[in-house]
Amino acid sequence: MKYNKYKNIMNKDLNSLDQTINDFISKGCKPIGGVSIVVGLKNILYVQTITVDSDSNSVLGEINSEPLYFREVRELASSGNKLSAVKLLKDETGMDLREAKEWVDNNC
C-alpha cells in the first residue's frame, strides 16, 4: 500500500504521544508500524507515523511535521556529506557522535 499523506508525530513524553495519536485516530487516521525512539544524551524522542485513507481528509494539516534539521540531515547524507549530517544531528539533538552516526547510517 502506498501512503500519499503521512505525518510523523513526535513527543518527548510517551503518554502525551499516545494521547495525540488517539486524537488523530478518532479523526480518521491510522498509525503505520510501531513507535520509533530517537535517543540522545539530553533527551529521548518518541515518533509515530500516521496516515489517512482518503486524500479528502485534511486532518493531517501540513504534511511534514519533522523538525527541519531531520530534513537537512537527510539531504546532507544523500548528497555525500555524511560527516556534516552527523555533526548537524549531534548538535541539534545532543546525541553523542556514535549515536548520531548510527542514526544517519540507519535512516538516511
Oligomer: single chain
Overall pLDDT level: 82
* Biggest β-sheet: strands ordered side by side in the sheet: 1-3-2
Structural class: alpha+beta
Measured between the Cα atoms of the first and last residue, the distance is 22 Å
Helix-strand topology string: EHEEHHH
Residue runs with pLDDT of under 50 for 5 or more positions:
none
Describe the largest sheet.
3 strands, antiparallel
What is the number of E strands?
Answer: 3
Characterise this structure.
The chain has 108 residues and is α+β, with helices and mostly antiparallel strands. The protein has helices at residues 14-26, 68-78, 82-93, 97-107, and strands at residues 6-11, 29-39, 44-52. Strand 2 (29-39) and strand 3 (44-52) form a beta hairpin. It starts with 5 loop residues before the first strand and ends with a helix. The relative contact order is 0.18. The model has no long low-confidence stretch (mean pLDDT 82).
Keywords for this entry:
2 domains, alpha+beta, 108 residues, 3-stranded antiparallel sheet, 24% strand, globular
Brief synopsis:
The protein has 108 residues and is an alpha+beta fold.
Helix and strand arrangement:
Elements: E1 6-11, H1 14-26, E2 29-39, E3 44-52, H2 68-78, H3 82-93, H4 97-107
Antiparallel strand pairs: 1-3, 2-3
Helix pairs in contact: 2-3, 3-4
